Amino acid sequence: MKYTIMVNEGPYQHQSSDTALQFVRAALAKGHTIFRVFFYHDGVNNGTRLAVPPKDDRMLQKEWSELAEKHGLDLVICIAAAQRRGLMDASEAKRQGLSADNIAAGFRISGLGQLIEGGIESDRTIVFGD
Amino acid sequence: MLHIVNKSPFERNALKSCLAHALAGDSVLLIEDAVIGAVSGSSIVTELQQAINGNAVKIYALSPDLAARGVKAERVLEGIQVVDYAGFVDLTVANEKTQSWL
């Protein structure tokens, strides 16, 4: 079965980013396909590579990147939500005249249309959030 | 249809609203802080039992989230089925539509 996952909550709010990651792992383990993971609202904070949590804390940003590399996941960050929160890829940083970008490996920045397409293309759309 | 509730019924009324809207044959999965509602003897028990016994709604609770909150299986209200993440995935397969009560 083909899934699109929506994550509306950041890694340091409640539990939903963790739940979404565990759900994706469990779905992949059962042989399902993750068509796309769409990060919206504070969920975009899952996609920074500049987070440095304490060594004994989990690091969701890295776990998403590793999972994306292993399974070829399409991790999409909403551009409007990203701009508000300072999440930039190289081209967006350049376009905005900013000195740096911070997007983590495996993530890409795009628009809400990607969520709609995910909903159309997938058998199931599951929302995790606050 | 699968309803997913992730907030404690003692913090928000999402679970109560969900139970009031769930139809016969629907499933309700309690995750994150919502699993506290699955504890036997709490003030939400009447609504849950009405849903299970009166309305033919199936109620599930996510086992890792119960464990994280110190709720052992024997404290879970009778009639609620405990599932792990694999069971969570199976519920989304079995139900064509999923609604998260955020």
Features:
heterodimer, A: alpha/beta, Hypothetical Protein Ychn, Chain: A, 20% strand, B: 102 residues, five-stranded parallel β-sheet, 4 helices, 5 strands
In short:
The complex is a heterodimer of chains A (130) and B (102). Chain A is of the alpha/beta class.
Q: Describe it for me?
A:
The complex is a heterodimer of chains A (130) and B (102). Chain A is α/β, with parallel strands linked by helices. Chain A has a single domain (2-128), classed as DsrEFH-like (Hypothetical Protein Ychn, Chain: A). In chain A, 37% of the residues lie in helices and 20% in strands. Chain A is built from five helices and five strands, in the order βαβαβααβαβ. Chain A has a five-stranded parallel sheet, with helices on both faces. In chain A, helix 1 packs parallel to helix 2. Chain A is globular. Chain A starts with a strand and ends with a strand. Chain B has 102 residues and is of the alpha/beta class. Chain B is 33% helix and 21% strand. Chain B has helices at 14-21, 45-54, 63-68, 85-94, and strands at residues 2-5, 27-30, 58-62, 80-83, 98-101. In chain B, strands 4-3-2-1-5 form a five-stranded parallel sheet. The longest helix of chain B is centred in the middle third of the chain and has 10 residues, at 45-54. The relative contact order of chain B is 0.25. The mean pLDDT of chain B is 97. At the A-B interface, helix 1 and strand 5 of A face helix 4 of B.
